[in-house]
Structures are given as structure tokens and as C-alpha cells.
């Protein structure tokens, strides 16, 4: 089986790019971040605070996250419920960053992610795909963009969903999340040694997709 790993900070466009590349190459797209978001949503619904690691670890036993595909689009199921519509809020984003550092949370999803890669050609995006989840991936890309550009994209995305938000606050949250993701003890966000860096700050989606496909075809 073939695999492509895309890592990078929040809002860099990983999911958008990965979906497009998967379609072009006829790969299965696995949004690992969405799986962590589903778990974060569960913790929020249960009223568990991010710093309550013991309660979070215990709650992991009550969570089942699975993936389904409808018309080629990934659907994230939390205990059988399709939660795609609930996992993209800023509250869930911060809870995800706060709780994905815990060993029990990562352990819960790691086997599922690796088993998907054993069964079919996949492209996965996240924070630690190339370094931890798929260290043997055929192509590893570290996709990034400036915090200002990432904030602008997130702001546009939220406004289009009818969600009231503040551009400056979004950028501050993104910078804070970068700091947290890069400095967490377990599986921090970092570029794999053999990953290719793509800075998408001034690139269109089409340009990034073309670059990634070219990289894969030349591996």
C-alpha cells in the first residue's frame, strides 16, 4: 500500500489539499485531526475540563470514533453519530489541542489510523503523521503558511458558516495553538527529517496540489 503524510500547523490548508490530492491519485483521505476533534467534542459534551487528564483518560473507554465515506467525503462518527457539523468550532479546536497531548487519547486513535494505511492507499494529514503515525510513508510533506494568512482563511471559513468571529482573536488563538502543539511532551508538531516543506502563504490551492502530486510522482 502507498501512503502520503502531511503535517503542519493549524489552518495551513492540510485538509483541503489532502482531499484534492486524494481525489487526483484515487487515494483514501484520512483526516486524523477530525478524529481528535470528535473526541474533544465528547469531552466538552460531558463537561470535562481540558486539564482533567484522569477524567479524560477514563472517558476514552466510552468513545468509539470511526470513519465512513459518502460520495467520496469523509464522515466522522462519534459513537455512531455523524459529528461533521459540530467539530469545526474554535472551542473544539482549542479543546483538541489541549487534550490530544494525552497518551490515552493518542493511543485510542493510533491503531485505527495505522490499520487504515495497511488496508488501502491513503493520504493522512495531522500534526505527527510523518513522525509518529506513518514514519514509513512514501512521501512526507510539511505544509505551512504564515499565522496571518492562516487566520484570514479560518475567519473566511467561519463567516461563510454564519459564525460570528474576530480576525485578531483567531490569529492569537492560532499562535497559541502552534506554541502548544510544538511544545507538547508527546508527539509534538515538527517536521520529519525527510519531509519536504511547502509554504503555502502565497500559493493557490491548485498550485499546492500540483506541487504535491509532482513530488509523489517523483518519489
Topology:
Layout: E1 3-7, H1 14-25, E2 28-31, H2 32-45, H3 53-59, E3 65-70, E4 73-78, E5 81-82, H4 90-99, H5 103-119, E6 122-126, H6 129-133, E7 139-144, H7 147-160, H8 167-183, E8 196-199, H9 205-217
Parallel strand pairs: 1-6, 1-7, 2-6, 7-8
Antiparallel strand pairs: 3-4, 4-5
Helix pairs in contact: 1-9, 2-4, 2-5, 4-8, 7-8
Core attributes:
219 residues, Rossmann fold, 5-stranded parallel β-sheet, 9 helices, 8 strands, 50% helix, 17% strand
Describe the structure.
It is a single chain. This protein is of the alpha/beta class. Helices cover 50% and strands 17% of the residues. The chain has one domain: P-loop containing nucleotide triphosphate hydrolases (Rossmann fold, 3-Layer(aba) Sandwich). The chain has 9 helices and 8 strands. A hairpin with a 2-residue loop joins β3 (65-70) and β4 (73-78). α1 crosses α9 (205-217) and α4 (90-99) runs parallel beside α8. The longest helix is centred in the middle third of the chain and has 17 residues, at 103-119. The protein starts with a strand and ends with a helix.
Describe the structure in brief.
By secondary structure, the chain is α/β, with parallel strands linked by helices.
